[in-house]
Amino acid sequence: MANGTNGLRTFSLGLQHVLAMYAGAILVPLIVGRALELSAEQLAYLVAIDLLSCGVATLLQLWRGKHIGIGLPVMLGVSFVAVTPMISIGTNYGITAIYGSILVAGLFVVIFARFFGKLQKVFPPIVRGTVVTIIGLSLIPTGIKNMAGGEGSENFGSLFNLLLSVSVLAVIILLFRMFTGFMRSLAVLIGIAGGTIAAAVMGKVSFGEVMEASWFHFPQPLYFGMPTFEIGPIITMIIVCSVIVVETTGAYYAVARITDRELNEDDLVRGYRSEGLAVIIGGFFNAFPYSTFAQNVGLLELSKVKTRNVIFSAAMTLIVLGLIPKVAALVVIIPTPVLGGATVVMFGMVVVAGLQMLRDVDFNEQSNQMVVACSVSLALGATVVPELFSSLPEGLAIIFGDGIITGSLAAIFINLLFNIRWKGEHVYNEEKQSKA
User: Fold this and answer.
1) Of 115, 161, 250, 263, which residue has the fewest beta carbons closer than 10 angstroms?
2) CA–CA distance, 68 with 275 (Å, rounded to integer)
3) pLDDT (tens digit per residue) in 239-270
């Protein structure tokens, strides 16, 4: 009886982790798929394979083997860093080029995991926090466009779209104001569900795709066709995955602190290899690159439940959901303005996570001010005015036209410029990084 009770408790806690990351996990395939004008059936596949692949990627990290797996209770989901680069690649080269670049980038991370492990001193809190902040800031315009109905939509900016998206935002804010703990973790999902129901009552939602979707399917390798390999998209995705490594390193250290575990270089290398392998698997089944989800890190601290059994249960739940097309089809019918109201919150919370990572940085040191100032300015500039780099060759234009990549590279190299010691025994100067 006790075992049954413990099993139910473990499942419930795991389901809480699924619910905490579910909205973030489904947003990337929906945003990218709609930007590339995929059909409802194709969108449903993207969402389903995304959920399944998130579960597989999480299992790879839970296992602490000799060569892969960091062995921490972390949840993996599709990284927001890859959103705008994938849309750009898909628009210019086609969707098969997205998956060709993802496969190569995943292999790159696996091969160079040891190299990334040795580079941790060039990814201090000033860089990690700036990168995460830039990710959130650069994605907010996408959320705002979705609030208006999605870029290029016939009713862009209509009063109905505005009222619907603002209502979803208001519901989320009110739930945060009125509740704490578990209910807060459900706020975004409740807001999305409420907005979709309201739109359905007004006749703006069709359930035809849900009724026609099957109850079970197997993942289909190379669903969108054989991948194509273009040098520009490949370089772009390698940079994207390198930025994800920087982002996810901060999450590793946060979870290690929560679980009272010391991380060494070998732990990080195994974690990077697992993420690279997950990216390869995702690319083969036409999913996307992964990172450790910050919202689940917060839930670990909130719940004080730190066992890997709970995360294992969550991973298996994701895999089961990914095998049920009706679940994916139900997600696809969500109106774009509803997503917009939710994504504004989600992307804003990414900004907050970045600012939290920067709180221990000593901003009395002007070099730290310069890192953040230049990186954020370049990131926002490239996001708002991507044509700034239009005169560059097409491959480079895709790379530098993305604000996240431009800002992240700026943060890494400007920080190196100020903190590498050109003389003396120590190569890297950490004294100027943090408050005493």
Assistant:
1) 115
2) 9
3) 889 888 887 887 787 788 778 888 888 899 99
